[in-house]
Every structure is written in structure tokens, then in C-alpha cells.
């Protein structure tokens, strides 16, 4: 009992520390005259939300984000599922080097290769196209997706596929009809993880997209910074909340359906 | 890697590796290609300003980097940032949270988990703004310190590298917490109970029994944390722009500064390659440790 109280107290202290920056966000979003100071607004107002709640400031960027990240996440998950199958099922001396290369690639600072990528995109006329940017985002998230997917797939016993193999099923049928349904939670985790990471990615769309009407929310958030150092903090906070809501909701849904902990931990145990 | 039963896999040998193709093509086109181009650029003196006259300069950029006090400053800051925020902060705090959560009551567990994970799920730019607001002179941290009777500081000016390190702990701890929660769930109950019967205290049990059992999770988590932290850019950029001066300028920020703001593409990519090298060294060390421990 004493142990439980001690653990509770320690966790509550950590939770308070983690919540402190979030409190500013919530309070500032309903404050007419928000500053960087955490103040309780009097009276609270919905004005900041209604100020940004329009096509130009919120809807278009959000739809752009959705198309960009949704498309990219779909490509990533399909490619990762396909790639994970042979890596998990077949033996070869090349599997380990391949996986290690993939793992090294996850540590690539994407910022570093944006210079050549920009050059490449100009050359092949993919610059300022949504699908080009989505493909690059997909590639940048792919290494970790393959790694996760392979670990989830390893947890599905091979014995279940042997029946299908004896019946002469192709690898594609085995993968789609036996393996993937069994690891549906894992596929969900990979999809949501990729989507969340892409949704928050600022630098890639900032470099590769030029037209204002293609910009996702992660880039348009900078329009809240005035040209002369004047920042409308209330609107910035309101927009940040709107922009963050989809990924938070998505996370909550997946975490609830798959049980606690997002099941991510199980997949990276190595 | 899965064990027996692999002999019965479909036999058409070359074709069975076909599923690897889409991912491999994508990776080669969009990551492999640019990396090779990176290597080439790093050996040139390309600049954004002033056209045409790009020439091959061999290892000059690297030589220049090692003689550049700003580069050495960035290396030191990157090491501080990585060790403080990733190896010590995210990793230890994540483990502590996971351990405490097993003892805590359900509502506290859910509340703490939700807050910590919210910090992780928020987009990087939003997190950057939040922590900028938090550490500012008029921000929440000083308000709290003031209540406690402690002196206020301009944190982003006096201790910028620690401020961004704490920001990274705030943002990244959830990942370690999730990994360790799952790892602890997988520890057999009997192992811990046996140690308890033998009279081992909580800390000793953790150190001598639990940690060795989950060492693989520790290794993987450390590696992923470290590599992710090495390439953190948006968070630092949003909070300090690498400043004041260059006192929070880690390698990614330094590289961006050189390549895009000073237009020294060649020099910037050389630094990017060195950063990749540092990542590779970290990854190799962890993998080596993992392999030796499983032997």
C-alpha cells in the first residue's frame, strides 16, 4: 500500500511536469489577449478558433496534409508489408545485411539529404507535385516501417502458412490471406505511426512544395508569425490544437482497439 | 529470425524475393540516390549563390570542418544533447515510468500515460512552440520557480543546450516508456517472485534480475533513441535557432546553417556525411553490445 502511494506520487509529479507546457496551449487558445505567459483568460473566448476556422487558414491546409500523408502512409505500409515477408520468412545470408542497412537508414538526418533531393526533384520535374512529395515522404518513413513490420511478422508462427504452402498457394496469397490478417494490429500500429510522423513533418513539404495551395498544415502554421515579429499567440494556439487533433484522435482510437501501449514496444524488442 | 519449417517455403527461388522490389526501388531512388549525390557534393565547393563554377575539391571540406571551431562546438553540443536527453533522459525516465506504472493505481497510470504520450504525438513544430513558451522569461517555468521562491532565469539564454535537451526529453520519453512497458510485461512472473522470496530489495531486484532479462529491449531502445536524437532539427530550430550565438547549435542545425543560410552546399553536405558517420558509430556500438550479451 505504501509502495503504491509512493509510485502514485512520483507519477503524478512527472505528469504535472509533462502537462505544464500543454496547459499554456489550452489556455492561450481561449484567451483573447494571449501572450507567452500562462494566464487564465477572463472571460474565455472561442474567438481564436472562429478566427482560424475557415477555408484559407484551416480547411485547405488540413485537406492537403490528409492527401499528402494519407497517400504516403498507404505507399509505405504496402511496400513495408511486401518487403517484410521475405525478410521474415526466408533465410539468406543477405537478410541480415539488408536489415542492418535499413536500420542505418532510419538514422539518416533527412535534413542532410534535402539538398540533393531538391536538385533531383527539379531535374525530373517532381518539384511542387503532391505525389512526388508523398513518394519521398513514403521513402523516408519506409526503413522504420520495414523494421517494425518485420518484427510483427516474426511473431506470427510459420506453421500456419505451411498448410497454405502445401496447397500450392503463392506467396502473395499466403501473405494477404494468412499472415496479414493475423498481424492486423501490427499493420495498424505501423500505419498510424507512419501517419503521425508524416503529419508532423515540416521540412520535406517546405522544401519540395512551392504553391501555397498545396501546403500542408505543418508549413502553413508559420503564417501565424507576423512579418514584423508580431505573433497572434491565441490564434497560433487554436490552430495548433486543430492541427494536432487528428493525430491525437487516431492514436487514441488505435491504442484503445489494440490494448494499451500502442503495441509498439513489442515490435522493437529486437 | 524464425526457426525451423522454412524448408517448405515456396520454391521458385529468385522470384520469392520479388516482394522486396517495391520498397528497395523506392529506397534506392529517393534515399540511396540522394546519399550518393551527397557524397559527390561533399567533395565539391558548390555554393547556391553565384552559378556554374563548382569544382572538385577532394577532402578540403572535411579538413576545413576539423579545423573549424564552430564545427567542433557543434560536435560537443551534439554529444551533450544526445547523452543528456537520449541516453540519460528519455531512456532512464522511460524505464522509471514503466517500472512505477506497474505499481501505481489505475487512474494515475492512465493519466500519466496520456500526458506523456500526448507530448510525443504532438507535431514537432507545435512541441517546439510549446516549449519555447515554457522556457521563455515570462513563461511557465519561471512562474513556477517564482512560486517556489527560486530565482527566475532566461533559460533559453543562460542554458540553451539544457533547455533543448529537456524539450527532447519531454517529447521523446513516451517512446521509451512504451518499449519498456512491453518489455516488462514479457518478464516471467516467477523470475521476479523468486528474487523477492530470496529477500532481494526492489532496487537490487531491478538491477540484478529484471534489467538483465530485458537487455535486448534496452539495446534496441537506446539505439533508436540515440539515432533519432542525433537528427533532431525542428525542435531546436523552433526553440532557439541554434542560438544564442551558437550555444545550442547541434550538428543538424550547423549543417542547415552552412548549407542553406550561408549557401555553402558542399561544406554543408560534408557535415551531413560526418553526422551520418557518427550515427553509424553509435549504431555499431549498440549492435556489438547486443550481440555479445546474447552469446
Automatic annotation (TrEMBL), chain B:
Main location class: membrane
One of the Pfam families matching this protein, by short name: BPD_transp_1
Statement: the UniProt record of this protein carries the keyword Transmembrane: yes
Name the record gives this protein: Sugar ABC transporter permease
Membrane spanning stretches: 20-43, 74-98, 110-135, 155-180, 222-240, 260-287
Organism: Streptomyces pactum
Residue intervals of the ABC transmembrane type-1 domain: 76-286
InterPro entries, alphabetized: MetI-like, MetI-like_sf
SUPFAM superfamilies reported in the protein's UniProt record: MetI-like
Membrane topology summary: Multi-pass membrane protein
Signal sequence segment: none
The entry's keywords: Cell membrane, Membrane, Transmembrane, Transmembrane helix, Transport
PROSITE patterns, alphabetized: ABC_TM1
Family per record: Belongs to the binding-protein-dependent transport system permease family.
Chain segments annotated as coiled-coil in the UniProt record: none
Record localization: Cell membrane
